Amino acid sequence: MFKRGLFLAVLAGALTGAVLLYITRPQPLPDDALAGLVADAARGETVFWAAGCASCHAAADAKGDEKLILAGGQRFVSPYGTFVAPNISNDAITGIGAWRALDLANAMLRGVSPGGSHYYPVFPYASYARASLQDIVDLRAFLATLPADATPNQPHEVGFPFNIRLGLGLWKLLYLRDGWVVTGDLTPDEERGRYLVEALGHCGECHTPRGALGGPDLSRWLAGGPVPAGTGRFPNITPAALDWSEGDIAEYLSSGFTPEYDSAGGHMALVVENTARLSPEDRQAIAAYLKQVAPVP
């Protein structure tokens, strides 16, 4: 009786493990997901700046055209370890020069590498999952116009158990969603702003607090939270705390100056460098969207 019970327990454990491995496996897009889409590198440049690619993947001290050399190397400290931005330049060996548009789409929308493994969500695919396939195709075309750089990638400094990437499938099961956070009857301008904030701009990655497993608390969307490195806080940018006018917000995203004549600092200064390259209409759309976010004290 004991042996039979032990056998059944082992069998049940094995079946449970097999099911868990199956439902948390990397799930790339279908091979024909991009069929019929025609790339436009000019539109891809807008996607590039809206998505903030250079802010993480260029050198930390890069200026001007150096922002377009996406050799990686920036370090991001978190409670789970230190993550190092990879080379996403046009180099075919150390960068993504050999990637297809579908490879980029799998990375940005599903968090899956060309080799079929999970990416860590420090790469903000939980936000990019809301992006359109057309924008990903256009972005890939623009990235192909940028310089190649052979700087080797550096490994992340992540200890046990977070170095076991299989567990990231469970994280995705819990937190990876492609639906909008702010819903309801929005104007076309507000919908464009929602797309820029919730998808490409991935503003919630910093401005939304996270739970113990690092997943965003969407009930406190954009309400601010601690900086992962352990010092300081990202501000609450819901209407409960951000009382600027739409014009003030749009101006800040253009010049970096607040209504009080203070200026953006830290990583936000890099964000403003990106939003300043967007059209005035896009900056206005972001401002209009932020006024529709639920106020969170």
From TrEMBL:
Domain of life: Bacteria
Domain Cytochrome c: 39-147, 188-294
Any Pfam family: Cytochrom_C
Keywords: Heme, Iron, Metal-binding
InterPro entries linked: Cyt_c-like_dom, Cyt_c-like_dom_sf, Cytochrome_c-type_DH
Name of the protein described by the UniProt record: Cytochrome c
Lineage, uppermost ranks: Bacteria, Pseudomonadati, Pseudomonadota, Alphaproteobacteria, Rhodobacterales
